């Protein structure tokens, strides 16, 4: 059977932006091929690539019918939409669909204070009675996948054990999400979480060593 589509992304490491796409594809049982020959900074700047994806960025997506799509969130949305779990992933009611959009658009901020504010909001959100997933309690959605995508690199790079201890519900939710087979597989679980944070003077050589 022909694959559902081809994803253009980095081939030498798992780009955080593609994890939500791959997780949605796994849950929807869609076969996505990773373009085997992308050389970041080279092939994505060629005329052939730009003819399909004018911004020349990754991730980008192409279907056998010639549909071209850029922007990780749009691709994740499309992949979520195109399979049997579309309603679960995108929301079963107008309100749930709006919440999925809200979470999917909430970029994890680069600046640390804003990032911490995002995490606090998440922690409060998950503190609600019986709260299991971000939108509905009984099933995960694209909201969970999108937020987890945004957290992947911070968790790997600088959210050390002390930092993580401040967000116990977020970490429980993360563990729950990574235990879902198609999701854990897409995120490369078990994800090696950050070790001690780098010291400002760079003396902490083992800063990125860690476990989890
Ligand atoms: N908002 C886009 C951002 C994509 C993006 O900035 N991709 C970078 C790599 S992380 C890129 O392809 N840059 C190549 C370039 O700007 O030439 C998304 O979420 O997909």
TrEMBL record:
Coiled coil: none
Domain GST N-terminal: 2-87
GO terms classed as biological process: translational elongation
Pfam family, one: GST_N
GST C-terminal domain residues: 68-202
One cellular-component annotation, GO: cytoplasm
Family designation: Belongs to the GST superfamily.
Protein name in the entry: Glutathione S-transferase
Organism of derivation: Karstenula rhodostoma CBS 690.94
Organism phylogeny: Eukaryota, Fungi, Dikarya, Ascomycota, Pezizomycotina
